[in-house]
Protein backbone atom coordinates (compact mmCIF):
# COMPACT_ATOMS: atom_id res chain seq x y z
CA UNK A 1 0.00 0.00 0.00
CA UNK A 2 2.86 2.36 0.85
CA UNK A 3 4.50 1.62 -2.49
CA UNK A 4 1.28 2.45 -4.39
CA UNK A 5 0.95 5.72 -2.44
CA UNK A 6 4.58 6.61 -3.18
CA UNK A 7 4.21 5.91 -6.90
CA UNK A 8 0.97 7.92 -7.02
CA UNK A 9 2.60 10.85 -5.20
CA UNK A 10 5.54 10.87 -7.59
CA UNK A 11 3.15 10.77 -10.57
CA UNK A 12 1.08 13.70 -9.23
CA UNK A 13 4.20 15.75 -8.43
CA UNK A 14 5.73 15.06 -11.86
CA UNK A 15 2.48 15.92 -13.63
CA UNK A 16 2.14 19.19 -11.68
CA UNK A 17 5.72 20.09 -12.50
CA UNK A 18 5.22 19.32 -16.19
CA UNK A 19 2.04 21.36 -16.25
CA UNK A 20 3.94 24.51 -15.27
CA UNK A 21 4.93 24.82 -18.93
CA UNK A 22 2.24 26.10 -21.28
CA UNK A 23 2.66 25.89 -25.04
CA UNK A 24 2.22 29.17 -26.95
CA UNK A 25 2.18 27.42 -30.34
CA UNK A 26 0.10 24.39 -31.26
CA UNK A 27 2.44 23.28 -34.06
CA UNK A 28 -0.35 23.41 -36.66
CA UNK A 29 -1.49 27.00 -37.24
CA UNK A 30 -1.13 30.55 -35.93
CA UNK A 31 -4.00 30.39 -33.47
CA UNK A 32 -3.34 32.79 -30.59
CA UNK A 33 -1.07 35.00 -32.71
CA UNK A 34 -1.59 38.08 -34.90
CA UNK A 35 0.65 40.12 -37.19
CA UNK A 36 1.48 43.81 -36.61
CA UNK A 37 3.74 46.18 -38.54
CA UNK A 38 5.32 45.16 -41.82
CA UNK A 39 4.35 42.66 -44.49
CA UNK A 40 6.86 39.87 -43.85
CA UNK A 41 5.37 36.40 -44.38
CA UNK A 42 4.57 34.14 -41.44
CA UNK A 43 3.52 30.53 -41.93
CA UNK A 44 3.57 27.17 -40.21
CA UNK A 45 5.62 24.31 -41.65
CA UNK A 46 6.84 21.05 -40.09
CA UNK A 47 5.72 22.11 -36.61
CA UNK A 48 7.61 25.40 -36.85
CA UNK A 49 6.67 29.04 -37.27
CA UNK A 50 8.58 30.54 -40.19
CA UNK A 51 9.07 34.26 -40.70
CA UNK A 52 10.21 35.20 -44.22
CA UNK A 53 11.75 38.58 -45.04
CA UNK A 54 10.15 40.86 -47.62
CA UNK A 55 11.92 43.86 -49.13
CA UNK A 56 10.84 47.45 -48.59
CA UNK A 57 8.51 46.89 -45.66
CA UNK A 58 8.94 47.92 -41.99
CA UNK A 59 9.84 45.54 -39.18
CA UNK A 60 7.19 42.83 -38.90
CA UNK A 61 5.95 41.26 -35.67
CA UNK A 62 3.92 38.12 -35.06
CA UNK A 63 2.53 38.81 -31.59
CA UNK A 64 0.73 36.75 -28.99
CA UNK A 65 -2.88 37.81 -28.46
CA UNK A 66 -2.33 37.62 -24.70
CA UNK A 67 -0.10 39.76 -22.49
CA UNK A 68 2.28 38.38 -19.86
CA UNK A 69 3.95 39.94 -16.83
CA UNK A 70 6.23 37.63 -14.82
CA UNK A 71 7.31 34.53 -16.69
CA UNK A 72 9.98 32.14 -17.91
CA UNK A 73 9.86 31.83 -21.69
CA UNK A 74 11.69 29.38 -23.94
CA UNK A 75 11.88 28.69 -27.63
CA UNK A 76 14.29 27.33 -30.22
CA UNK A 77 15.47 29.54 -33.07
CA UNK A 78 17.15 28.83 -36.41
CA UNK A 79 18.18 31.06 -39.32
CA UNK A 80 18.34 29.79 -42.89
CA UNK A 81 20.46 32.78 -43.91
CA UNK A 82 22.02 35.84 -42.29
CA UNK A 83 19.10 38.07 -41.35
CA UNK A 84 18.54 40.13 -38.20
CA UNK A 85 15.65 39.18 -35.94
CA UNK A 86 14.55 39.18 -32.33
CA UNK A 87 11.99 38.10 -29.77
CA UNK A 88 9.87 40.86 -28.27
CA UNK A 89 8.72 40.49 -24.67
CA UNK A 90 6.67 42.73 -22.41
CA UNK A 91 5.94 44.71 -25.56
CA UNK A 92 3.00 46.87 -26.59
CA UNK A 93 1.19 48.33 -29.59
CA UNK A 94 -1.08 51.19 -28.56
CA UNK A 95 -2.62 53.88 -30.72
CA UNK A 96 -1.27 56.69 -28.54
CA UNK A 97 2.33 55.60 -29.12
CA UNK A 98 3.54 56.37 -32.67
CA UNK A 99 0.25 55.21 -34.20
CA UNK A 100 0.47 51.73 -32.78
CA UNK A 101 4.13 51.06 -33.45
CA UNK A 102 5.42 47.99 -31.59
CA UNK A 103 7.70 48.98 -28.72
CA UNK A 104 9.27 47.22 -25.78
CA UNK A 105 12.00 44.78 -24.84
CA UNK A 106 13.64 42.55 -27.42
CA UNK A 107 16.09 39.66 -27.11
CA UNK A 108 18.39 39.99 -30.10
CA UNK A 109 19.02 37.40 -32.82
CA UNK A 110 22.14 38.65 -34.57
CA UNK A 111 24.23 36.61 -37.06
CA UNK A 112 26.48 39.58 -37.87
CA UNK A 113 30.16 39.93 -36.98
CA UNK A 114 29.36 42.04 -33.91
CA UNK A 115 27.79 38.95 -32.24
CA UNK A 116 25.13 40.68 -30.18
CA UNK A 117 22.73 37.73 -30.00
CA UNK A 118 21.16 37.57 -26.54
CA UNK A 119 21.50 41.29 -25.91
CA UNK A 120 18.48 43.33 -24.83
CA UNK A 121 17.20 46.08 -27.12
CA UNK A 122 14.35 48.49 -26.41
CA UNK A 123 12.47 48.47 -29.71
CA UNK A 124 11.23 51.88 -30.94
CA UNK A 125 11.99 53.48 -27.59
CA UNK A 126 15.45 53.81 -25.97
CA UNK A 127 17.56 51.59 -28.20
CA UNK A 128 20.20 49.28 -26.75
CA UNK A 129 19.86 48.54 -23.04
CA UNK A 130 22.36 45.69 -22.95
CA UNK A 131 24.68 45.43 -25.95
CA UNK A 132 26.82 42.33 -25.75
CA UNK A 133 29.97 44.41 -25.29
CA UNK A 134 28.97 44.26 -21.62
CA UNK A 135 29.36 40.47 -21.65
CA UNK A 136 32.20 39.99 -24.10
CA UNK A 137 33.15 36.48 -23.00
CA UNK A 138 29.68 35.09 -23.77
CA UNK A 139 29.38 36.59 -27.24
CA UNK A 140 28.08 33.95 -29.61
CA UNK A 141 28.86 33.31 -33.25
CA UNK A 142 25.25 32.71 -34.35
CA UNK A 143 25.53 30.32 -37.29
CA UNK A 144 22.90 29.70 -39.92
CA UNK A 145 21.33 26.25 -40.11
CA UNK A 146 21.71 25.55 -36.38
CA UNK A 147 19.08 25.55 -33.65
CA UNK A 148 19.66 27.69 -30.55
CA UNK A 149 17.68 27.55 -27.32
CA UNK A 150 16.49 31.01 -26.25
CA UNK A 151 15.29 31.63 -22.70
CA UNK A 152 13.94 34.83 -21.11
CA UNK A 153 13.28 35.23 -17.40
CA UNK A 154 11.25 38.23 -16.21
CA UNK A 155 10.28 38.58 -12.57
CA UNK A 156 9.43 42.06 -11.36
CA UNK A 157 12.08 44.49 -12.60
CA UNK A 158 14.69 41.78 -13.18
CA UNK A 159 15.10 40.74 -16.84
CA UNK A 160 17.53 38.00 -17.90
CA UNK A 161 18.29 36.34 -21.23
CA UNK A 162 20.00 33.03 -21.99
CA UNK A 163 21.22 31.16 -25.08
CA UNK A 164 21.91 27.44 -24.77
CA UNK A 165 21.98 27.81 -20.99
CA UNK A 166 24.45 30.73 -20.89
CA UNK A 167 23.40 33.94 -19.17
CA UNK A 168 23.77 36.64 -21.81
CA UNK A 169 22.25 39.81 -20.35
CA UNK A 170 20.67 41.15 -17.19
CA UNK A 171 18.69 44.39 -17.05
CA UNK A 172 16.94 46.02 -14.12
CA UNK A 173 14.12 48.19 -15.49
CA UNK A 174 10.54 49.21 -14.78
CA UNK A 175 9.47 50.77 -18.09
CA UNK A 176 7.00 47.99 -18.97
CA UNK A 177 5.61 45.47 -16.47
CA UNK A 178 3.40 43.50 -18.86
CA UNK A 179 3.01 42.95 -22.57
CA UNK A 180 2.94 40.53 -25.48
CA UNK A 181 5.61 38.34 -27.05
CA UNK A 182 6.42 38.87 -30.71
CA UNK A 183 8.55 37.07 -33.28
CA UNK A 184 10.31 39.73 -35.32
CA UNK A 185 11.32 39.70 -38.96
CA UNK A 186 13.56 42.71 -39.42
CA UNK A 187 13.11 44.99 -42.41
CA UNK A 188 15.45 44.45 -45.36
CA UNK A 189 16.38 47.08 -47.91
CA UNK A 190 16.88 45.03 -51.06
CA UNK A 191 15.36 42.15 -53.01
CA UNK A 192 18.64 40.30 -52.54
CA UNK A 193 17.84 40.02 -48.80
CA UNK A 194 14.22 39.00 -49.35
CA UNK A 195 13.12 35.40 -48.84
CA UNK A 196 15.37 34.74 -45.86
CA UNK A 197 13.67 32.66 -43.18
CA UNK A 198 13.71 32.57 -39.40
CA UNK A 199 12.35 29.43 -37.70
CA UNK A 200 10.82 29.11 -34.22
CA UNK A 201 9.69 25.92 -32.53
CA UNK A 202 8.85 24.57 -29.06
CA UNK A 203 7.55 27.94 -27.89
CA UNK A 204 6.50 27.65 -24.25
CA UNK A 205 6.05 29.66 -21.06
CA UNK A 206 5.81 29.35 -17.28
CA UNK A 207 3.82 31.92 -15.31
CA UNK A 208 3.50 30.33 -11.86
CA UNK A 209 5.92 28.86 -9.30
CA UNK A 210 8.77 30.54 -11.15
CA UNK A 211 12.24 29.35 -10.25
CA UNK A 212 14.72 31.69 -11.90
CA UNK A 213 18.38 31.06 -12.58
CA UNK A 214 20.76 32.31 -9.86
CA UNK A 215 22.62 35.55 -10.59
CA UNK A 216 26.12 35.48 -12.00
CA UNK A 217 28.24 37.57 -9.58
CA UNK A 218 30.66 38.46 -12.38
CA UNK A 219 28.09 39.66 -14.92
CA UNK A 220 27.72 43.40 -15.43
CA UNK A 221 24.15 44.45 -14.75
CA UNK A 222 22.47 47.35 -16.55
CA UNK A 223 20.22 49.07 -13.99
CA UNK A 224 17.83 51.66 -15.44
CA UNK A 225 15.90 52.42 -12.24
CA UNK A 226 17.29 55.77 -11.06
CA UNK A 227 19.38 56.02 -7.90
CA UNK A 228 19.02 52.38 -6.89
CA UNK A 229 21.31 49.46 -6.22
CA UNK A 230 19.75 46.16 -7.24
CA UNK A 231 20.20 43.06 -5.13
CA UNK A 232 22.65 41.71 -7.70
CA UNK A 233 24.69 44.92 -7.71
CA UNK A 234 24.77 44.97 -3.91
CA UNK A 235 26.21 41.45 -3.88
CA UNK A 236 28.80 42.59 -6.41
CA UNK A 237 29.93 45.40 -4.10
CA UNK A 238 28.33 48.48 -5.67
CA UNK A 239 27.21 51.41 -3.55
CA UNK A 240 25.54 54.72 -4.35
CA UNK A 241 27.77 57.78 -4.32
CA UNK A 242 24.71 60.05 -4.41
CA UNK A 243 21.46 59.22 -2.65
CA UNK A 244 19.24 61.16 -5.06
CA UNK A 245 17.95 63.46 -2.32
CA UNK A 246 20.70 65.27 -0.41
CA UNK A 247 24.22 66.63 -0.81
CA UNK A 248 25.62 63.98 1.54
CA UNK A 249 29.02 62.70 0.43
CA UNK A 250 29.78 65.71 -1.78
CA UNK A 251 31.31 69.17 -1.35
CA UNK A 252 32.64 71.93 -3.52
CA UNK A 253 36.07 71.36 -5.06
CA UNK A 254 38.69 73.00 -2.80
CA UNK A 255 35.88 73.86 -0.38
CA UNK A 256 34.55 72.48 2.87
CA UNK A 257 30.86 72.65 1.98
CA UNK A 258 28.54 72.02 -0.92
CA UNK A 259 28.09 75.11 -3.15
CA UNK A 260 25.28 77.43 -2.11
CA UNK A 261 24.41 78.24 -5.73
CA UNK A 262 24.83 76.74 -9.21
CA UNK A 263 23.53 73.27 -8.30
CA UNK A 264 20.03 71.98 -7.72
CA UNK A 265 18.52 68.68 -6.56
CA UNK A 266 15.15 68.03 -8.16
CA UNK A 267 13.12 64.86 -8.83
CA UNK A 268 16.06 62.57 -8.09
CA UNK A 269 18.37 64.47 -10.44
CA UNK A 270 21.46 66.54 -9.68
CA UNK A 271 21.41 69.62 -11.91
CA UNK A 272 24.31 71.82 -12.91
CA UNK A 273 22.50 75.09 -13.55
CA UNK A 274 23.13 77.20 -16.60
CA UNK A 275 25.13 80.40 -16.18
CA UNK A 276 27.38 82.09 -18.72
CA UNK A 277 29.04 78.88 -19.91
CA UNK A 278 32.25 79.65 -18.06
CA UNK A 279 34.31 76.99 -16.31
CA UNK A 280 33.64 76.79 -12.55
CA UNK A 281 32.51 80.41 -12.30
CA UNK A 282 29.04 79.82 -10.84
CA UNK A 283 28.63 77.12 -8.20
CA UNK A 284 31.90 75.48 -9.18
CA UNK A 285 32.80 71.80 -9.42
CA UNK A 286 31.77 69.30 -6.76
CA UNK A 287 33.84 66.35 -5.53
CA UNK A 288 33.27 63.23 -3.47
CA UNK A 289 34.29 63.28 0.17
CA UNK A 290 36.08 59.99 -0.42
CA UNK A 291 39.09 59.18 -2.59
CA UNK A 292 39.31 56.18 -4.89
CA UNK A 293 42.03 54.21 -6.63
CA UNK A 294 40.83 51.17 -8.62
CA UNK A 295 37.10 51.18 -9.27
CA UNK A 296 34.12 50.89 -11.59
CA UNK A 297 32.27 54.20 -11.66
CA UNK A 298 28.81 54.33 -13.25
CA UNK A 299 26.72 57.44 -13.78
CA UNK A 300 23.74 58.59 -15.82
CA UNK A 301 23.92 62.00 -17.48
CA UNK A 302 21.71 64.12 -19.69
CA UNK A 303 22.82 67.24 -21.54
CA UNK A 304 20.91 70.16 -22.92
CA UNK A 305 21.47 71.92 -26.23
CA UNK A 306 25.13 73.03 -26.72
CA UNK A 307 26.12 71.91 -23.20
CA UNK A 308 29.56 71.08 -21.82
CA UNK A 309 30.53 69.23 -18.62
CA UNK A 310 32.66 66.32 -17.49
CA UNK A 311 33.35 63.67 -14.88
CA UNK A 312 36.88 63.70 -13.53
CA UNK A 313 38.81 61.11 -11.56
CA UNK A 314 42.10 61.11 -9.62
CA UNK A 315 41.41 64.68 -8.53
CA UNK A 316 43.79 65.56 -5.67
CA UNK A 317 43.01 69.29 -5.28
CA UNK A 318 46.74 69.94 -4.93
CA UNK A 319 46.86 71.93 -8.16
CA UNK A 320 45.18 75.28 -7.51
CA UNK A 321 43.47 76.68 -10.59
CA UNK A 322 41.10 79.52 -11.38
CA UNK A 323 38.91 77.17 -13.38
CA UNK A 324 38.01 73.51 -12.98
CA UNK A 325 40.02 71.29 -10.65
CA UNK A 326 42.67 69.14 -12.36
CA UNK A 327 42.13 65.46 -13.08
CA UNK A 328 41.62 62.88 -15.82
CA UNK A 329 38.32 63.74 -17.47
CA UNK A 330 35.50 61.79 -19.10
CA UNK A 331 34.20 64.49 -21.43
CA UNK A 332 30.48 65.29 -21.58
CA UNK A 333 29.58 67.45 -24.58
CA UNK A 334 27.11 68.32 -27.30
CA UNK A 335 29.46 67.34 -30.14
CA UNK A 336 27.28 68.88 -32.79
CA UNK A 337 27.00 72.38 -31.37
CA UNK A 338 29.62 73.07 -28.71
CA UNK A 339 32.81 74.60 -30.18
CA UNK A 340 35.06 72.52 -27.92
CA UNK A 341 34.32 69.48 -30.11
CA UNK A 342 36.42 71.02 -32.89
CA UNK A 343 39.32 72.03 -30.64
CA UNK A 344 42.09 69.85 -29.26
CA UNK A 345 43.45 67.13 -31.53
CA UNK A 346 41.65 64.52 -33.68
CA UNK A 347 38.45 64.81 -31.66
CA UNK A 348 39.93 64.31 -28.21
CA UNK A 349 37.48 66.80 -26.67
CA UNK A 350 34.31 65.07 -27.85
CA UNK A 351 31.73 63.02 -25.94
CA UNK A 352 33.23 60.27 -23.69
CA UNK A 353 36.80 61.12 -24.74
CA UNK A 354 39.68 61.34 -22.28
CA UNK A 355 39.62 65.11 -22.47
CA UNK A 356 42.46 66.64 -24.52
CA UNK A 357 44.31 63.31 -24.59
CA UNK A 358 42.47 60.44 -26.36
CA UNK A 359 39.39 60.59 -28.62
CA UNK A 360 36.53 58.17 -28.06
CA UNK A 361 35.22 55.82 -30.75
CA UNK A 362 32.00 57.15 -32.25
CA UNK A 363 29.94 53.96 -32.20
CA UNK A 364 26.49 54.55 -33.73
CA UNK A 365 24.73 52.48 -31.07
CA UNK A 366 26.32 54.52 -28.28
CA UNK A 367 24.85 57.81 -29.48
CA UNK A 368 21.80 59.35 -27.78
CA UNK A 369 19.89 62.45 -28.73
CA UNK A 370 20.16 65.67 -26.75
CA UNK A 371 17.72 65.46 -23.86
CA UNK A 372 17.97 61.67 -23.53
CA UNK A 373 19.71 59.92 -20.64
CA UNK A 374 23.14 58.37 -21.24
CA UNK A 375 24.97 55.76 -19.21
CA UNK A 376 28.62 56.58 -18.62
CA UNK A 377 31.17 54.28 -17.04
CA UNK A 378 34.84 54.59 -16.11
CA UNK A 379 36.74 51.44 -15.17
CA UNK A 380 40.13 51.80 -13.48
CA UNK A 381 41.81 48.44 -12.94
CA UNK A 382 44.44 47.88 -10.22
CA UNK A 383 47.14 47.66 -12.94
CA UNK A 384 46.23 51.20 -14.16
CA UNK A 385 44.45 50.02 -17.28
CA UNK A 386 41.52 52.39 -17.79
CA UNK A 387 38.38 52.22 -19.92
CA UNK A 388 35.65 54.69 -20.87
CA UNK A 389 32.21 53.29 -21.71
CA UNK A 390 29.17 55.03 -23.20
CA UNK A 391 25.73 53.40 -23.20
CA UNK A 392 27.11 49.90 -22.77
CA UNK A 393 29.90 50.19 -25.36
CA UNK A 394 33.60 50.58 -24.64
CA UNK A 395 34.71 53.68 -26.53
CA UNK A 396 38.34 53.98 -25.41
CA UNK A 397 41.00 52.36 -23.26
CA UNK A 398 44.52 53.28 -22.21
CA UNK A 399 47.26 52.50 -19.73
CA UNK A 400 48.30 55.36 -17.53
CA UNK A 401 51.94 55.61 -16.53
CA UNK A 402 53.30 54.35 -19.86
CA UNK A 403 55.61 56.29 -22.21
CA UNK A 404 52.63 56.73 -24.56
CA UNK A 405 50.54 58.24 -21.78
CA UNK A 406 53.31 60.64 -20.78
CA UNK A 407 53.76 61.65 -24.43
CA UNK A 408 50.06 62.47 -24.70
CA UNK A 409 50.21 64.58 -21.56
CA UNK A 410 53.30 66.42 -22.83
CA UNK A 411 51.42 67.68 -25.90
CA UNK A 412 48.22 68.57 -24.02
CA UNK A 413 47.00 71.46 -21.87
CA UNK A 414 48.11 69.40 -18.85
CA UNK A 415 51.82 69.39 -19.64
CA UNK A 416 52.52 72.07 -16.98
CA UNK A 417 51.03 70.00 -14.14
CA UNK A 418 53.68 67.74 -12.52
CA UNK A 419 52.74 64.04 -12.33
CA UNK A 420 49.39 64.74 -13.99
CA UNK A 421 46.89 61.89 -13.71
CA UNK A 422 49.22 59.63 -11.75
CA UNK A 423 47.91 59.96 -8.20
CA UNK A 424 47.42 56.66 -6.37
CA UNK A 425 43.98 57.84 -5.25
CA UNK A 426 41.79 60.85 -5.87
CA UNK A 427 38.36 62.38 -5.59
CA UNK A 428 35.68 61.99 -8.24
CA UNK A 429 34.39 65.26 -9.67
CA UNK A 430 31.30 66.55 -11.48
CA UNK A 431 32.10 69.63 -13.50
CA UNK A 432 30.32 72.97 -13.58
CA UNK A 433 31.03 74.42 -17.02
CA UNK A 434 28.22 76.93 -16.91
CA UNK A 435 25.77 74.78 -18.90
CA UNK A 436 22.68 72.87 -17.79
CA UNK A 437 23.56 69.20 -17.33
CA UNK A 438 21.87 66.54 -15.18
CA UNK A 439 23.30 63.56 -13.28
CA UNK A 440 21.76 60.61 -11.44
CA UNK A 441 22.46 56.95 -10.52
CA UNK A 442 26.06 57.67 -9.52
CA UNK A 443 27.48 54.45 -8.12
CA UNK A 444 30.85 52.82 -7.55
CA UNK A 445 32.45 49.44 -6.98
CA UNK A 446 35.98 49.48 -5.63
CA UNK A 447 38.36 46.93 -7.14
CA UNK A 448 41.12 45.10 -5.35
Textual characterization of the structure:
By secondary structure, the chain is mainly β. It has two domains: 20-206, Jelly Rolls; 227-446, Jelly Rolls (Sandwich), CATH 2.60.120. It has three helices and 29 strands. The chain has helices at 2-18, 231-236, 403-410, and strands spanning 22-23, 33-37, 41-45, 48-52, 60-64, 71-79, 85-92, 103-109, 120-123, 127-130, 148-155, 158-163, 166-172, 180-185, 197-206, 222-223, 239-240, 250-252, 263-266, 269-272, 286-288, 295-303, 308-315, 328-333, 374-380, 385-390, 393-399, 427-430, 437-446. Strands 1, 3, 4, 6, 11, 12, 13, 15 and 16 form a nine-stranded mixed beta sheet that branches. Strands 17, 19, 20, 22, 25, 26, 27 and 29 form an eight-stranded antiparallel beta sheet that branches. Strands 2-5-14-7-8-9-10 form a seven-stranded antiparallel beta sheet, with no helix packed on it. The radius of gyration is 25 Å and the shape is elongated. The N and C termini lie far apart (61 Å). 41% of the residues are buried. Mean pLDDT is 93; it is low at 4-18.
Strand composition percent: 35-45%
Q: Helicity range of the residues?
A: under 10%
The number of strands is 29
- Total domain count: 2
CATH topology of the largest domain: Jelly Rolls
According to CATH, the homologous superfamily of the largest domain is Exo-inulinase, domain 1
Query: Could you tell me how far the N terminus lies from the C terminus, measured between alpha carbons in angstroms?
Result: 61 Å
Q: Report the structural category.
A: mainly beta
What general form does the structure show? Answer: elongated
The CATH class label of the largest domain is Mainly Beta
CATH architecture annotation of the largest domain: Sandwich
Largest sheet, described in full? 9 strands, mixed
Mean pLDDT across all amino acids: 93
Q: Over all CA atoms, what is the radius of gyration?
A: 25 Å
Count of DSSP-assigned helices: 3
